[in-house]
Structures are given as structure tokens and as C-alpha cells.
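Memo to structure team: turn this sequence into C-alpha cells by end of day. - J.P.
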Amino acid sequence: MRRLGRVVVPLLFAAAVFIAYWFARKNPDVIDQLDLDRKATLRVLLFLTWFPLIFFIIRAVDVVAFDVLASRKRNVRAPVLLREIVSIALFLLLLAWTISSIFDYRVTAFLATGTVLAAVLGLALQETLGNLFAGIALHLDDSFELGDVIRSGDTMGIVEGVRWRGTHIRTFNNNVIIVPNSMLARERLEVFPRSNPNARILQFGIDYNVAPASVIGVLTQAASNVDGVEKGMPCFARVAGFAESAVVYEIKYFTADYSLRDRIDADIRKAVWYALKRNAIPIPYPIRAMQRYQAPQPRHHPDHDEIVERLGRVDILSPLSAEARDAIADAARIHVFSKGETIIRHGTSGDSMFIVHEGTVSVRVSGGEVAQLEAGAFFGEMALLTGEMRAADIVALTDVITVEIAKDALNPVLHDHPELAAMFSAKVMERRGTLDSLRESGKEEESTILSRIRAYFGL
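Reply from structure team:
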């Protein structure tokens, strides 16, 4: 009724004015008695007749094109912005034609003189025009329609209208948010069209003791019969993963009206609960299995007895008694080196020697390899006995476990048995001769080494 009134009222007003125009034209004496210009008065009355007719034509076109034809064809309401743009464009065209026809006025001349004014208004209304043209672009692109669900950024809801400034979106909390059209045109826009099968996924946790073949059928059947689930698209369940307390299943369904998703989700959860109860399938409570932490077995490291045995096989330490080896084993340190790692570097200071317990090392002098040492071999004895700089680079060829004997471990033994210094110097001479020949240097006198040992340990 209201729509009909919007069309009929301008027509009635136009008819009333037309009667006045017809009367004045048939009785020009009335105009003369009022001391009015006959020609100008008739033109004004004719214009006043056409002016409401323009509104009648615009509203009639709006009703027929959008309320009748478009709604029957697409079963949705046309956007308000489109209707307003069409109405304004049609109004301007009919008004220009009326003025031009009745008053013999060239509208193009007005447009030419209003160019500067149009530029000023365009700059002043830049943001408003941006929203307007963005709304037009969204409509022409057929991005979405009234009733569609859209998501832009953090905003999600049902499109209720597209106006000059922005798009009206009703959220699922029943709030209306107006998003500027320029923002919708600029940002990522996710659309869930009406009458288009839109997918939803729900997750459920089911007891580990129930076979998936039984669960999948129950879940699928429960979700398929819920009102709002699209019947023409397959609704199915699947295993999604394994959680701490349950096997996680997913139900994937499709709905033609995505705005009903919350209600459909709730109905599916309710239907699943009853279906699981009927089939004696438990929904598990959170379960945690408590277990004491057990450290992984470490790589084999030599114990005290193995270190004592190693010391007994090192010829340079053969003068030591069993009690002395036992004391040194207590103070020895175990080190693990990875493949390619440098254990000692030429020219650095040190006060310890190393025994290879496991693995292989490379002895390198002046950048070239001169020997490889296997398990049971030792190096660095001169730094232990005299404190001299390291004479070679020692690099691990494999993962290596070494036993390090430092000056602090040997010092108490030598102070208790000073005579061991001479025995050590004799053993050092045998080994030092080989290394000196490799480095092409002269042998050192045994008495010199003995004096250095005594001085180093303060004997």
C-alpha cells in the first residue's frame, strides 16, 4: 500500500496542476487580470505539471524494474544504492529534457559554466565519492547480494543494504555494522552467497576404543537429517587426527543459507550426542597418563675401573704404582668430542694429557696429517709434564671419548714419589724422538727434560 501511494500521489498532484494549466490556457484573461506575463505563466504551470510527472515516472520505473521484474527473476531485493543511482540518473535526464523543452534553455551551457564548481565539490567530497564509486563497482562486479553472508577483516554478517557511504552488515550477534564501501573494495572479501552450497566443518572427540568404521556411519547419519543441511550435497564424517584423550572426527556439511550456521551447528551437535548415546559410543573425558621421566641411556663413558685399566696400558705412565693410578683415575676428567672438532690446537698452552678411550684422532703438524691415533693412544704428555706449548693440532676424525689427566692429578703423586720424575723423562725421550723426527728438529737431552719436570712440579 505504501509503495502504491508513492506512485499515485505524484500522479494526482500532476493532474491537479495540469487542470490549472489547462484552465489558464483556455482563459488567458484571468492571467491578464492578475497582471502576469501570459507566456511565462503558462510555461511555469506546464513545468509544475511535468515536475510531479517526473517523480511518477521514476517511481513507476523503480517499482516495475526492481520490485517486480528483478525480484521475480533473482528472488532477492535489489540493493538500495542501485535503485537510488538509477532514480537520480533518470531524474536528471528527465529534468534536463523538461527544462530544455519548456523554457528553450540549453542545459549544455549550464554544464559548461559549472565545471569549476564541480571540481571544487569533487575535491571536497573526495571520500564520499570514493565510497559511492566503490559501492557502484561492488555492485557492477556482482560481488555480493542482499542476504549474502560476507567476511571482511574481523567483521562477518549478513548484508542488509548498500548505501552511499557504506554497506550495512548485521552480525550474528544482531548488531549492525556499517563498513565503508571503499574498505570493502580495498580489502580481502570472503563471500558466502545465498542459495550456494557453503561448507562447514565441525569436530568431535570420540573414545579411542571405538572403531572408526562404526563412528563415521553414526556421525554421518546424525548430521544428514538436520534441518538446514543441504540434501543435494554429500554430508560425511572423517578421521581428522589423534588428540591426547580422543580420536578427533570431522563432520563436513553444506548449507544453502550460511546465515543459519550457528543454529545448524548446534542442532548437529545435539543430534550427534543422542546418536552416540543410542549406539553406546562414549564421549571421552580428558585423560592424561602420568609416567616418570627416564633419561635416555647415555653414550658409554669409562668408569673408574676402566680408567685405571687405561692408565696401566699407557707406557709413559707405566712407572706409576697401582695406588698412584687409582688416585689419578679419581681426578681424571671425561670429555666427548664430535667428528671434525679440534681437541687441542698447536701453539696453545696446556697442563694436561689426553688418552683416547673411543674413536680416532688425527695428529697434524704444519697443516699436514702425520699420524692417526686409535683407542688406547695418548697425546699432550709434554704439556702435562713440563707445561710447554702444544706441539701439534689434534682433530677428531670420529666421535671421540677421551680421558684427560691434568697437572693437579699428577702433582700429589710426584711429591710423594720424586723418583718417578726420572722414569717419566726416560719414557718421554722415547716418544719425543719420534715427534721431533717428524718436525725435523733435534732431540732434547734426557737431563734437560728431567730438570724441566722437576722445575714444573717444584720437586
